[in-house]
Structure formats: C-alpha cells, structure tokens
Amino acid sequence: MNLNQIFTNQRTGNNPHTKASRTDFQRDFDRIIFSSAFRRLQNKTQVFPLPGSVFVHNRLTHSLEVSSVGRSLGSIIGEFIFETYKNDLTEESKNFYLHNLGNVIAAACLCHDVGNPAFGHSGEDAIASYFERNEKELKLKFNEKEWADLVSFEGNANAIRVLAQRQQGKDEGGIQLTFSTLASIAKYPCEAVAKKKGIIHRKKFGFFQNEKDIFLEIAKATNLILESEEPCIFKRHPFVWLVEAADDICYNIIDMEDAHRLGIVSTSDCENLFFELIRSENNDTERVKNKLASISNENEKISYLRAKAINALINKSLEIYKHNFETILHGNLDNGLLDMYKSENQALKDIEAFSIEKIYNHKAVVEIENAGYNVMYELLDHFIPSILKPEEERKSYDKKALKLLPRQFVYEDGSDYQKVLGVVDFVSGMTDNFATDLYRKIKGIDIGMTV
Predict the structure, then answer these.
(1) Cβ within 8 Å of residue 226, ≥6 positions away
(2) Tens-digit pLDDT profile for residues 155-206
(3) CATH classification for the domain delimited by 24-116+152-234, as one of 3.40.50.10540, 1.10.1740.10, 1.10.3210.10, 3.40.50.1440
(4) C-beta neighbour count of 447 within 10 angstroms
(5) Is 200 exposed, middle or buried (0-12, 13-18, 19+ CB in 10 A)?
(6) Which terminus of the chain has a lower count of CB atoms within 10 Å, N or C?
C-alpha cells in the first residue's frame, strides 16, 4: 500500500469540502460526539448490568477511554511513519501523519461500538438467532447474501450502516464521516458469505449487502487491498490494527477494575494480576511498590495499577506494530497486536483466563445476557412478521404493531430485506432500558400511559 494513498478527507454523502478551523478528521470526532447513536451508548451494557449502585463502564464510557488510548497510539505511529518514510511522503501526507492520524484513530475508536445492540453480545446473538430459528418461514424471502447478513448479524457491520446509511427522511450519507475514519473501524472487510473462522479479517463480516456500494467507495478511496471480488473480500486497512489494539487494551484491563469495584474480584487478586503484567514490562517495579505503599484506598490502588498496566500495553502494542509495519502494509499480518503479545506473555494470559472464569461467567453477567437475549428476540418477533406482510393482508394487530415503529425505520417501498433491516435498525439501536420498557409494555407486563 502507498502511504500517500490510504487516507482521504472524502466523506459519505458526497458533500463538497468546506474550510473550517478544525481539520476534517477533527470534525469526524465532533460529529460522532454529537450524534444520537453515540449518546445511546450511555445506556448500553458493556459487561455488567446497568444501572447499579456502583458506577461501572457502559458502552459510552468504554468508547471514550478506547478513544483516549487510540489517540495516543495514532499520534505516536504518525510520528514513526513520518520519520521512517518521510522521503516517500508528499507534503500533504507529512502533515496528515504528524498532525491527524491521531485524530482519525481517536474518532474511529469513539464510534467502533455504535453498531452494537443493547445487552452486550447477547443482543447480537438474539438478532442472529431470531432468523436462524425462523428459517423455515423467512429464508425464501431473501437471496443468499441477504440471508447470510441476517443469520450472522454483526455489530461491526451494523456500525457502518448506522454511520453511513441514509434513513428515511434524513440526509444522505448518515453522519457523513470521512472514508478514512470508516475504513479504520472495518475489522472484517468482507461480506457475510465470505466469513471464515481462523482468518483474522474474515472472522466476522464488515458490511451488509445494503451498504456494499458504500463500502466499495470506502475501499476505493482508501486503497484497500482486494483479496477477492466474489465473494467480496479486502485486506484490513493499516489503521484498523491500532483501533483494535486500543479496544483490546481497554477491555482486558477495565473489566477487571469494574469487577473489583463490584466486589466480584478481590483486591489481592486484582493487584497481583496487574502487578505481574506491569513487572513483565517494567524493570522499575520498586517505584510501583513504593507508590502502592503510600495509597491506603483499595480502589485507588487498583486505579493506579490499571493506569500503569494500560501504559505497558500501549508501549508493547506500539513496539509490535512498528516491528510488523511492512507486513501490515501488505495486508499479510494474521494476528492482532494484543494476541501476538499474549502468546508470549504469561501475565496477560492469566488476566484473560481469570476474566473468563470469574467475570464473564459471573451470575450477574449471565443473567443480563439471558434477559437481554429474550427481550431482543421478542421485540423482533413483534415487528418482523407484520412488516413482511403485504399491506392489504395486514390485520389490525399488525397495523398496531407497526405504529410503534418510528417513520425513519419504515421502508414500505423497499424489498423485504430492506424492510427487515429497518426493524433491525430500530431494535439494535435501543438502549437497555428502552428495550426492556417496550418489551414489558407490548407483553402486557406494564400497562399505563407514558409520554
């Protein structure tokens, strides 16, 4: 890949470039901050149930922290690219890598989760399994690729749709981000029929058929490496690895800190796990021990160690990225930066194993996943059969159900696939509380007038 041709300020919606005091990539960050899709993340589960008596991370606070880490990674790698390849860079490219790569990565990190439904990954599973469990009634209404989208519903692909598609009655191009930012969140730049376990860029899929043309524009403008036209598969954009690393760094460490605050993980276990990770990358552990000895508050101790652990993982990610940069540019790296580090670092392996056993399988987490699965499934079942009926065949209960759909999600003149995607847009965009409240109302559990 040519470093001068993998970024662009071109946006979805084909709006002409306008001069402003902010760069185009800073404007991306601001547009995401002010978008309703980003605001809704404040009431979407990260891992632990919301709300609670102890404030833990939701999708919004997680995204803000990932963005902070991503800005650091992008800024440092921008300087590295400038210094290493400055003889090959145009003046525009020098300016971009020195001053704007950090903004692109920060913006991409900020919106990397906007396509995720309520209730964590169980929300994704509920949407996919709704179609799997109703295959006999539904499959013949869609072509092979459309059906693959639905039975493999994926938050990463949905993020491209949320950010770039034109909803009914709204402006073209979604929130009109630059193609550079959108390319940076495409962890799986292939269509659903091409997904394949064991291949990092095909583990899941990155765009729905409805947004395929938009994604092809993104790929062309940022010069993604084409692996296959049919099925459509691209190699990852070089910036994706930094966004993924920022996300991996945060959830590996922050979930542990949240579990400690909730009393799920003891102070000694958390302290030992974090300290071992820091020790594996920092010879100056005496200073860390002395600092810990001066802090009596347990939460503050863990916060200090969390900061040191994140810093250690940032430094290691930068080292691995730089070492593998040429491989990344050619689209040939086959493992994530943190996964590469995990393979050689026992402390990080221990944190992952401990998290799986003690956190992700904790009763409270499993309960919210089960509840969320049922809520999301039932909401889809309330709307999809009705939206797929021809208007003249709809009964009174179908019409009543569809009156609950906001108009921007209703594509009456579209195909069955587009109609169903509209319902999925509505349900997947819900917050935990909104989804639960609507479920209780349509099931008759809560009856009463609300405005």
Answers:
(1) 219, 233, 234, 235
(2) 999 999 999 987 665 667 678 999 999 999 999 999 999 999 999 999 999 9
(3) 1.10.3210.10
(4) 7
(5) middle
(6) C
